[in-house]
């Protein structure tokens, strides 16, 4: 990964952290050991392990690969996967499992069993599932 890509990624993580804190309050932080440990990008977002991506244009195959990464990182952390991404000049979107939106629908692995929600909808989901889980 090039320096510009890392810089864009870190800026995306900081931007998303600020937006989530505006919705949910303080306590969200960047996981600065993620590069060394291979973990998720943001901590303190309820029961979710969030993978953050910023890209000029995300393709379906990129989203599928990113979701696979998010699932693996969440599993190793004992949390629920979430993939937040933003394309250039577009709003943030968050991919979550259908089972997290509607309990009883799984949880089945794979991107086929996910829903893309807005950032305010994701914040509402975090509030509903409880911020106490870290």
Brief sketch in words of this structure:
This protein is α+β, with helices and mostly antiparallel strands and 134 residues long. It is built from five helices and six strands.
Rg, nearest Å = 14 Å
Secondary-structure element order, as H and E? HEHEEHEEHEH
Reading side by side through the largest sheet, how are the strands ordered?
A: 1-2-3-4-5-6
- Estimated share of beta-strand residues: 15-25%
CATH class descriptor? Alpha Beta
Main sheet properties: 6 strands, mixed
Query: How would you describe the shape?
Result: globular
Q: Judging by the overall fold, what is the CATH architecture?
A: 3-Layer(aba) Sandwich
Which residues sit in consecutive blocks of at least 5 with pLDDT less than 50?
none
Question: Structural class of the secondary structure composition?
Answer: alpha+beta
Number of helices: 5
First-last Cα distance = 29 Å
CATH topology: Trna Endonuclease, Chain: A, domain 1
Number of domains: 1
Give average pLDDT, whole number: 87
Helical proportion, percent range: 40-55%
SS elements, strand count: 6
